[in-house]
Amino acid sequence: xxxxxxxxxxxxxSGSVLYANVFGDLFGVREQYARSADRNPGVANAFTYGxxxxxxxTLLFELAKGAVPVxxxxxxxxxxxxxxxxxxxxxxxxxxxxxxxxxxxxxxxIAVTFGSLLGLFPYVRPVLIFAAVFIFLSVVVKISPHFYxxxxxxxxxxxxxxxxxxxxxxHLSFVFMTALVCLRxxxxxxxxxxxxxxxxxxx
Length: 203
Description:
This protein is mainly alpha-helical and 203 residues long.
């Protein structure tokens, strides 16, 4: 059990590196995050203030910091199922939201959530469900602003994983991820604009 928990610690420390800040410093735009609407050190602000290359690098590394620890845990000699798998999946997101290296003031964690689910490869059902829901609520039934779309996407994904028979440890981990992200969103500094829902064929 002790060896398994080392993977949880590594996953948390991996999540604690905020790459929007790392590349924000590299591209000289990090201080601009504080003037954004949500003050979030995340992928969206990396693209907005740092441009294409800053955004792409941030996105890739945010995905990787979730995917790599999960993938290596699953392919280690340690038993990969049960409670420890749940913790390894959650740990990168917990690190991102409450990062040790940044005084426990982190980001929302959408990209790292995708990363953790990608780390389950070749078991791709959970990440495909999450991606499909996000796209559906962004294109077909468009929920805006992003604040509400994110919360709705997490909650609906929790529901959609039930009929899809997602592995219980993975499903439960996503429930905890949803709670963590929703709490982080609720505590966000961004102004909560009025909720709007539009269908694809509506203008």
